[in-house]
Amino acid sequence: MKLKALPIIALLVLFTAPSACADALLDAYAYDAFAPLNPSVRQVSQNRDFTQFHVEYDSANSERVPALLNLPTGGKAPYPCVIAQHGYSSRKEDNLIFALALARLNICMFAIDAQYHGERAQPGKDIFSTDIEDDARALIQTVIDLRRAVDYLQSRPDVKPDRIGYIGVSMGGIIGSLFSGVEQRVQAPILVVGGGGWRTLISYSQIGPAISMRNHLAKTGMDVDAIADTFAAVEPLNFIWRVAPRPVLFINGKRDTLVPPEANRLLHRAAAEPKTIVWFDGIEGEPTGHIPPITDILEICKDWWQKYLL
Protein backbone atom coordinates (compact mmCIF):
# COMPACT_ATOMS: atom_id res chain seq x y z
CA MET A 1 0.00 0.00 0.00
CA LYS A 2 1.48 3.31 -1.07
CA LEU A 3 1.01 5.71 1.81
CA LYS A 4 3.40 8.02 3.56
CA ALA A 5 4.48 6.90 7.01
CA LEU A 6 2.64 8.40 9.94
CA PRO A 7 4.50 11.49 11.20
CA ILE A 8 6.34 10.91 14.46
CA ILE A 9 4.07 13.42 16.17
CA ALA A 10 1.20 10.98 15.59
CA LEU A 11 2.88 8.61 18.00
CA LEU A 12 3.51 11.18 20.71
CA VAL A 13 0.42 13.30 21.19
CA LEU A 14 -2.27 10.87 22.30
CA PHE A 15 -2.29 12.18 25.86
CA THR A 16 -2.52 15.88 24.99
CA ALA A 17 -5.73 17.89 24.95
CA PRO A 18 -8.09 16.73 22.16
CA SER A 19 -8.02 19.99 20.23
CA ALA A 20 -4.23 20.23 20.22
CA CYS A 21 -3.94 16.57 19.36
CA ALA A 22 -6.34 16.74 16.42
CA ASP A 23 -4.68 19.89 15.07
CA ALA A 24 -1.34 18.09 15.06
CA LEU A 25 -2.77 14.96 13.45
CA LEU A 26 -4.79 16.56 10.65
CA ASP A 27 -1.78 16.36 8.33
CA ALA A 28 -2.28 12.60 8.17
CA TYR A 29 -5.45 13.25 6.15
CA ALA A 30 -4.05 15.86 3.76
CA TYR A 31 -4.34 15.24 0.03
CA ASP A 32 -4.32 17.16 -3.26
CA ALA A 33 -7.93 18.22 -3.76
CA PHE A 34 -7.07 19.48 -7.24
CA ALA A 35 -5.76 16.14 -8.49
CA PRO A 36 -7.95 14.75 -11.29
CA LEU A 37 -10.58 12.22 -10.25
CA ASN A 38 -10.65 10.45 -13.63
CA PRO A 39 -14.05 8.94 -12.85
CA SER A 40 -15.58 6.04 -14.73
CA VAL A 41 -19.32 5.44 -14.47
CA ARG A 42 -21.52 2.61 -15.76
CA GLN A 43 -25.12 1.74 -15.02
CA VAL A 44 -25.55 -1.64 -13.35
CA SER A 45 -29.26 -1.82 -12.47
CA GLN A 46 -32.54 0.04 -12.29
CA ASN A 47 -35.76 -0.40 -10.34
CA ARG A 48 -38.80 1.76 -9.71
CA ASP A 49 -37.05 3.62 -6.88
CA PHE A 50 -33.49 4.22 -8.04
CA THR A 51 -30.93 3.67 -10.77
CA GLN A 52 -27.62 2.25 -9.61
CA PHE A 53 -24.23 3.07 -11.11
CA HIS A 54 -20.82 1.57 -10.51
CA VAL A 55 -18.27 4.37 -10.09
CA GLU A 56 -14.49 4.36 -9.84
CA TYR A 57 -12.32 7.38 -9.12
CA ASP A 58 -8.73 8.23 -8.26
CA SER A 59 -7.75 8.85 -4.66
CA ALA A 60 -4.44 9.70 -3.00
CA ASN A 61 -1.50 7.28 -2.99
CA SER A 62 -2.37 5.83 -6.42
CA GLU A 63 -5.54 4.21 -5.08
CA ARG A 64 -8.48 3.58 -7.40
CA VAL A 65 -11.70 3.54 -5.35
CA PRO A 66 -14.75 1.48 -6.38
CA ALA A 67 -18.16 2.81 -5.36
CA LEU A 68 -21.90 2.56 -5.96
CA LEU A 69 -24.13 5.55 -6.68
CA ASN A 70 -27.92 5.29 -6.42
CA LEU A 71 -29.91 8.09 -8.05
CA PRO A 72 -33.63 8.34 -7.24
CA THR A 73 -35.99 7.81 -10.15
CA GLY A 74 -38.48 10.24 -8.63
CA GLY A 75 -38.06 13.87 -7.72
CA LYS A 76 -35.91 16.35 -9.55
CA ALA A 77 -32.15 16.80 -9.57
CA PRO A 78 -30.04 18.07 -7.96
CA TYR A 79 -30.50 15.71 -5.01
CA PRO A 80 -29.05 15.66 -1.52
CA CYS A 81 -26.74 12.68 -1.03
CA VAL A 82 -25.81 10.41 1.87
CA ILE A 83 -22.47 8.61 1.90
CA ALA A 84 -23.06 5.18 3.48
CA GLN A 85 -20.06 3.32 4.91
CA HIS A 86 -20.16 -0.40 5.59
CA GLY A 87 -18.86 -2.30 8.59
CA TYR A 88 -15.93 -4.64 9.14
CA SER A 89 -15.68 -7.60 6.72
CA SER A 90 -18.57 -6.15 4.73
CA ARG A 91 -18.65 -4.27 1.41
CA LYS A 92 -20.35 -1.37 -0.35
CA GLU A 93 -23.22 -3.53 -1.62
CA ASP A 94 -24.28 -4.23 1.97
CA ASN A 95 -25.28 -0.61 2.49
CA LEU A 96 -28.30 -1.09 0.27
CA ILE A 97 -30.44 -1.46 3.40
CA PHE A 98 -30.53 2.34 3.37
CA ALA A 99 -30.93 2.72 -0.40
CA LEU A 100 -34.70 2.34 -0.61
CA ALA A 101 -35.42 4.66 2.34
CA LEU A 102 -33.14 7.33 0.89
CA ALA A 103 -34.52 7.00 -2.65
CA ARG A 104 -38.08 7.43 -1.38
CA LEU A 105 -36.96 10.68 0.24
CA ASN A 106 -35.42 11.72 -3.10
CA ILE A 107 -31.92 11.49 -1.63
CA CYS A 108 -29.17 9.70 -3.53
CA MET A 109 -26.71 7.33 -1.86
CA PHE A 110 -23.00 6.82 -2.43
CA ALA A 111 -21.02 3.92 -0.95
CA ILE A 112 -17.36 2.94 -1.29
CA ASP A 113 -15.40 -0.19 -0.43
CA ALA A 114 -13.11 0.52 2.52
CA GLN A 115 -9.46 -0.44 2.15
CA TYR A 116 -9.04 -4.26 2.05
CA HIS A 117 -12.80 -4.78 1.59
CA GLY A 118 -15.01 -5.73 -1.36
CA GLU A 119 -13.31 -5.06 -4.67
CA ARG A 120 -10.25 -3.81 -2.74
CA ALA A 121 -9.64 -7.07 -0.88
CA GLN A 122 -6.03 -8.24 -0.87
CA PRO A 123 -4.90 -11.74 0.16
CA GLY A 124 -3.39 -11.66 3.65
CA LYS A 125 -4.45 -8.06 4.31
CA ASP A 126 -6.95 -6.91 6.95
CA ILE A 127 -7.83 -3.41 8.15
CA PHE A 128 -7.76 -4.73 11.75
CA SER A 129 -4.78 -7.02 12.25
CA THR A 130 -1.69 -7.38 14.42
CA ASP A 131 0.17 -5.18 11.91
CA ILE A 132 -0.98 -2.05 13.68
CA GLU A 133 0.97 0.43 11.56
CA ASP A 134 -0.64 -0.93 8.40
CA ASP A 135 -4.03 -0.88 10.13
CA ALA A 136 -3.60 2.83 10.85
CA ARG A 137 -2.52 3.50 7.26
CA ALA A 138 -5.54 1.62 5.91
CA LEU A 139 -7.95 3.59 8.10
CA ILE A 140 -6.36 6.89 7.06
CA GLN A 141 -6.50 5.86 3.42
CA THR A 142 -10.22 5.10 3.72
CA VAL A 143 -10.90 8.52 5.23
CA ILE A 144 -9.00 10.19 2.39
CA ASP A 145 -10.97 8.06 -0.08
CA LEU A 146 -14.18 9.37 1.50
CA ARG A 147 -12.92 12.94 1.19
CA ARG A 148 -12.30 12.27 -2.49
CA ALA A 149 -15.86 10.90 -2.65
CA VAL A 150 -17.07 14.35 -1.56
CA ASP A 151 -14.91 15.90 -4.30
CA TYR A 152 -16.54 13.56 -6.82
CA LEU A 153 -20.10 14.17 -5.60
CA GLN A 154 -19.58 17.93 -5.67
CA SER A 155 -18.44 17.62 -9.29
CA ARG A 156 -21.80 16.14 -10.32
CA PRO A 157 -24.56 18.57 -11.39
CA ASP A 158 -27.24 16.16 -10.10
CA VAL A 159 -25.97 16.33 -6.47
CA LYS A 160 -26.49 19.29 -4.12
CA PRO A 161 -22.94 20.18 -3.07
CA ASP A 162 -23.98 21.57 0.33
CA ARG A 163 -26.33 18.69 1.22
CA ILE A 164 -23.97 15.73 1.57
CA GLY A 165 -24.54 13.60 4.67
CA TYR A 166 -23.01 10.44 6.09
CA ILE A 167 -24.12 7.24 7.78
CA GLY A 168 -21.67 4.63 9.01
CA VAL A 169 -22.39 1.35 10.74
CA SER A 170 -19.98 -0.39 13.16
CA MET A 171 -16.53 0.06 11.56
CA GLY A 172 -18.27 2.64 9.36
CA GLY A 173 -19.27 4.47 12.53
CA ILE A 174 -15.68 4.48 13.78
CA ILE A 175 -14.38 5.66 10.41
CA GLY A 176 -17.20 8.21 10.25
CA SER A 177 -16.08 9.73 13.55
CA LEU A 178 -12.74 10.46 11.90
CA PHE A 179 -14.13 11.44 8.51
CA SER A 180 -16.84 13.80 9.75
CA GLY A 181 -14.34 15.42 12.11
CA VAL A 182 -11.77 15.96 9.37
CA GLU A 183 -14.15 16.78 6.51
CA GLN A 184 -16.17 19.93 7.16
CA ARG A 185 -18.27 19.57 4.00
CA VAL A 186 -20.22 16.61 5.41
CA GLN A 187 -23.50 17.50 7.09
CA ALA A 188 -25.31 15.88 10.05
CA PRO A 189 -23.46 12.52 10.25
CA ILE A 190 -25.17 9.45 11.70
CA LEU A 191 -22.87 7.03 13.55
CA VAL A 192 -24.50 3.64 14.21
CA VAL A 193 -22.90 1.20 16.70
CA GLY A 194 -19.57 3.00 16.44
CA GLY A 195 -17.30 3.89 19.33
CA GLY A 196 -14.08 5.49 20.47
CA GLY A 197 -11.11 4.78 22.69
CA TRP A 198 -8.86 2.14 21.17
CA ARG A 199 -7.72 0.99 24.62
CA THR A 200 -11.32 0.15 25.49
CA LEU A 201 -12.15 -1.36 22.11
CA ILE A 202 -9.07 -3.59 22.03
CA SER A 203 -9.36 -4.56 25.69
CA TYR A 204 -13.05 -5.46 25.83
CA SER A 205 -14.52 -6.03 22.36
CA GLN A 206 -15.45 -9.63 21.56
CA ILE A 207 -15.00 -9.21 17.81
CA GLY A 208 -12.43 -11.56 16.30
CA PRO A 209 -9.68 -9.00 15.50
CA ALA A 210 -9.78 -7.60 19.05
CA ILE A 211 -9.44 -11.09 20.50
CA SER A 212 -6.53 -11.78 18.14
CA MET A 213 -4.92 -8.52 19.19
CA ARG A 214 -5.20 -9.42 22.88
CA ASN A 215 -3.65 -12.82 22.17
CA HIS A 216 -0.85 -11.09 20.25
CA LEU A 217 -0.23 -8.73 23.16
CA ALA A 218 -0.07 -11.63 25.59
CA LYS A 219 2.47 -13.48 23.44
CA THR A 220 4.70 -10.50 22.72
CA GLY A 221 4.48 -8.80 26.11
CA MET A 222 3.31 -5.56 24.50
CA ASP A 223 0.99 -3.23 26.36
CA VAL A 224 -2.29 -2.02 24.88
CA ASP A 225 -1.02 1.54 25.31
CA ALA A 226 1.58 0.88 22.60
CA ILE A 227 -1.17 0.12 20.12
CA ALA A 228 -3.25 3.09 21.24
CA ASP A 229 -0.23 5.35 20.70
CA THR A 230 0.21 4.11 17.14
CA PHE A 231 -3.52 4.62 16.59
CA ALA A 232 -3.41 8.25 17.75
CA ALA A 233 -4.02 9.53 14.21
CA VAL A 234 -7.07 7.26 13.91
CA GLU A 235 -8.46 7.74 17.41
CA PRO A 236 -12.11 8.86 17.10
CA LEU A 237 -11.90 10.71 20.43
CA ASN A 238 -9.32 13.03 18.91
CA PHE A 239 -11.63 14.12 16.06
CA ILE A 240 -15.30 13.77 16.95
CA TRP A 241 -15.41 17.17 18.69
CA ARG A 242 -14.64 18.78 15.33
CA VAL A 243 -18.09 17.87 13.99
CA ALA A 244 -19.64 20.78 15.93
CA PRO A 245 -21.46 23.01 15.19
CA ARG A 246 -22.88 20.44 12.77
CA PRO A 247 -25.32 18.08 14.50
CA VAL A 248 -24.35 14.43 14.99
CA LEU A 249 -26.58 11.44 15.77
CA PHE A 250 -25.25 8.46 17.74
CA ILE A 251 -27.17 5.17 17.74
CA ASN A 252 -25.81 2.43 20.00
CA GLY A 253 -26.73 -0.85 21.69
CA LYS A 254 -27.15 -1.18 25.45
CA ARG A 255 -25.61 -4.67 25.53
CA ASP A 256 -23.26 -4.57 22.56
CA THR A 257 -20.33 -6.97 22.98
CA LEU A 258 -18.53 -6.00 19.73
CA VAL A 259 -18.44 -2.24 20.31
CA PRO A 260 -18.90 -2.08 24.10
CA PRO A 261 -21.19 0.60 25.57
CA GLU A 262 -18.23 2.16 27.40
CA ALA A 263 -16.63 2.85 23.99
CA ASN A 264 -19.91 4.43 22.90
CA ARG A 265 -20.01 6.63 25.99
CA LEU A 266 -16.40 7.74 25.51
CA LEU A 267 -17.28 8.89 22.00
CA HIS A 268 -20.46 10.63 23.16
CA ARG A 269 -18.59 12.54 25.86
CA ALA A 270 -15.87 13.64 23.45
CA ALA A 271 -18.42 15.06 21.00
CA ALA A 272 -19.57 18.65 21.34
CA GLU A 273 -23.14 19.88 21.08
CA PRO A 274 -25.40 19.63 19.18
CA LYS A 275 -25.52 15.86 19.56
CA THR A 276 -28.34 13.34 19.82
CA ILE A 277 -27.83 9.96 21.48
CA VAL A 278 -30.15 6.98 21.02
CA TRP A 279 -29.79 3.63 22.81
CA PHE A 280 -31.55 0.48 21.65
CA ASP A 281 -32.20 -2.98 23.03
CA GLY A 282 -30.65 -5.76 21.00
CA ILE A 283 -32.70 -7.91 18.65
CA GLU A 284 -34.15 -10.89 20.50
CA GLY A 285 -32.06 -14.00 19.89
CA GLU A 286 -29.09 -12.08 18.43
CA PRO A 287 -26.20 -12.88 20.81
CA THR A 288 -23.82 -9.95 20.24
CA GLY A 289 -26.26 -7.09 20.91
CA HIS A 290 -24.59 -5.33 18.00
CA ILE A 291 -27.33 -5.48 15.37
CA PRO A 292 -29.89 -2.70 15.73
CA PRO A 293 -33.64 -3.15 15.20
CA ILE A 294 -33.57 -2.15 11.54
CA THR A 295 -37.11 -0.83 11.18
CA ASP A 296 -36.75 1.44 14.20
CA ILE A 297 -33.33 2.67 13.11
CA LEU A 298 -34.56 3.49 9.62
CA GLU A 299 -37.40 5.59 11.04
CA ILE A 300 -34.96 7.54 13.22
CA CYS A 301 -32.63 8.07 10.26
CA LYS A 302 -35.42 9.18 7.93
CA ASP A 303 -36.55 11.80 10.43
CA TRP A 304 -32.93 13.00 10.75
CA TRP A 305 -32.42 13.27 6.99
CA GLN A 306 -35.70 15.10 6.51
CA LYS A 307 -34.68 17.60 9.16
CA TYR A 308 -31.11 18.25 8.07
CA LEU A 309 -30.72 17.33 4.38
CA LEU A 310 -34.02 18.24 2.72
Describe the structure.
The protein has 310 residues and is of the alpha/beta class. The protein has one domain (15-308): Rossmann fold, CATH 3.40.50. It is built from nine helices and nine strands. The chain has helices at residues 18-25, 99-104, 132-155, 171-182, 198-204, 208-220, 224-230, 261-270, 294-308, and strands at 40-46, 50-58, 64-72, 79-85, 108-112, 159-169, 187-192, 248-253, 275-280. Strands 1-2-3-5-4-6-7-8-9 form a nine-stranded mixed sheet, sandwiched between helices. A hairpin with a 3-residue loop joins strand 1 (40-46) and strand 2 (50-58). Helix 5 crosses helix 6 and helix 5 (198-204) packs across helix 7 (224-230). The longest helix is centred in the middle third of the chain and has 24 residues, at 132-155. The N and C termini lie far apart (39 Å). Mean pLDDT is 92; it is low at 1-20.
